[in-house]
Amino acid sequence: MIGFQEVTKQFGSTRALDQATMVFPKGKITGFLGPNGSGKSTSLKMIAGLNRPDSGSVLIDGHRPSVETKKDIAYLPEIDHLYPWMTIGEAADFTKSFYEDWDHNKYMELMDFLQLEPSMPIKKISKGMRAKAKLLLTFSRDAKIVLLDEPLSGIDILTREQIIQTIIRDYRAGEQSIIISTHEIQEIEGLIDEVIFMDRGRAVLQGEAEILRSERNKSLVELMKEVYHHGNF
Ligand SMILES: Nc1ncnc2c1ncn2[C@@H]1O[C@H](COP(=O)(O)OP(=O)(O)OP(=O)(O)O)[C@@H](O)[C@H]1O
């Protein structure tokens, strides 16, 4: 379980997180939803150990983010972080050198499934292919925690479908925790067990997707519209 307890993070005059309290349950897929600037990327970076709270605490199975917790986390950032001068195969070798949980068989299978080739130069491939290459590197590890920051953003519909299938393909329910940040809930509604809605640096609604749907008799898309258009629920 990953828990945020009253976490605040300020960048200059911008409060990215404002006493955010939320729980990402273990072994589940959590949809981490919210408009631009609501604090999703800041939260994921905090779990990945790339930034620290100004106040409050973040605990991953009871431990503060550290070099040790990083070993169990596969993080797919929103930005295009692949080195353009590498081929996909070189980027894979580079990633592999950092992590003990690299699974070569999974890498080969996913490469085939995503219709990528190790010899493809990153600077020459399309945006959709780069998104798939990022996913390939993330899911070729057997990480206990997978953080996907906007994995579908700016990607065409067929590639989106492939990305969703990749997420479902090897997911180890109960063992692996996946957090997917997005503002496009439609694509992931069928995939997620849990949901957290962020607004202005706070988690404003969270819970099991199925329970929220039945309690409120609404789809998550409708619920999202209600949360963000009226600001109360
Ligand atoms: N390193 C930084 N320096 C300055 N401001 C930052 C930094 N990182 C985030 N912010 C600001 O903090 C706020 C929250 O940003 P964050 O990226 O966490 O939101 P988000 O929900 O992920 O949004 P998006 O969907 O646009 O990525 C924004 O106003 C953003 O501009």
From TrEMBL:
Keywords: ATP-binding, Nucleotide-binding, Transport. It comes from the Bacteria. Residues 2-225 form the ABC transporter domain. Gene3D superfamilies: P-loop containing nucleotide triphosphate hydrolases. The keyword Transport applies. Coiled coil: none annotated. PROSITE patterns: ABC_TRANSPORTER_1 (PS00211), ABC_TRANSPORTER_2 (PS50893). Pfam families: ABC_tran. The keyword Calcium does not apply. GO terms for molecular function: ATP binding; ATP hydrolysis activity. PANTHER family: ABC TRANSPORTER ATP-BINDING PROTEIN ALBC-RELATED. This is ABC-2 type transport system ATP-binding protein. It comes from Geosporobacter subterraneus DSM 17957.
